Amino acid sequence: MILPKERDQRLITIRRGGTLSDDDHRLLALWAAACAGHVLEYFEQAQPNDHRPHHALAQLQAWVRGELSMSEARAAGGHANAAARGLSGAARFAGFAAAQAALVAHVAAHNLGAAAYAIKAVCAAATKGTEDEAGRQECAWQHAQLPATLRAFVLDDQRARNPICWGVFAVND
Questions:
Q1: What share of the chain in percent tops pLDDT 90?
Q2: Measured by CB atoms within 10 angstroms of the end CB, which terminus of the chain is less buried, N or C?
Q3: C-alpha distances in angstroms, 1 versus 20, 24, 107, 164?
């Protein structure tokens, strides 16, 4: 798990004593889903008959629309984790990215887990010697997907948590 020991109040919803609005929580969830969805093909190529990570992303989007409970989205994330566990390389990381995205419904701080695992998936899929550049490009793509209202906050969070996220974030923006 790539969550900090001390939780940032900006990643805790207002109703739980933090400062994160429900609207921003949903935006973080959609961004995490975009990050995971961007690399989902790596999982699907390795496991074409296992739909658990795809289902987890669909469940998260249903949660964002108010059609599903947080518990149901969280459970789908657990199933995506299980799907990824026995794999290696890009497929494993892509499955974990989908799981982390679905878990954003429960704990908003999982948004960086989805992004970090997506970058790790791209790096694992890259040809030898191009891994770092592939990771930088994926990080730049993710940054371009950030809602403007969350950009500064997410980049600040990436700088703070980069050490526990394998140093994958290019946070010089």
A1: 88
A2: N
A3: 21, 22, 12, 9
- Tell me: pLDDT of 172 over 70: no
Q: Specify the number of domains making up the chain.
A: 1
User: Is 12 within the bounds of a domain?
Assistant: no
pTM assigned to the model = 0.95
- In eight-state DSSP terms, residue 80 is H
> Rounded CA gap, 115 and 161, in Å?
12
Residue found under tokens 């948004």: 111
Q: Once rounded to an integer, what is the mean pLDDT over residues 68-94?
A: 97
Identify the three-state secondary structure at position 159: helix
Query: Which tokens hold the place of 170?
Result: 């290019």
Determine, yes or no, domain membership for 10: no
Instruction: Find how far residue 168's CA is from the centre of its chain.
Output: 13
**In degrees to the nearest 10, what's the CA dihedral of 161, 162, 163, 166?**
120
Identify whether 128 is part of a domain. yes
DSSP letter for each residue of 84-122: HHT--HHHHHHHHHHHHHHHTTT-GGGHHHHHHHHHHHH
Domain range for 100 is 17-165
Looking at residue 169, what DSSP letter applies? -
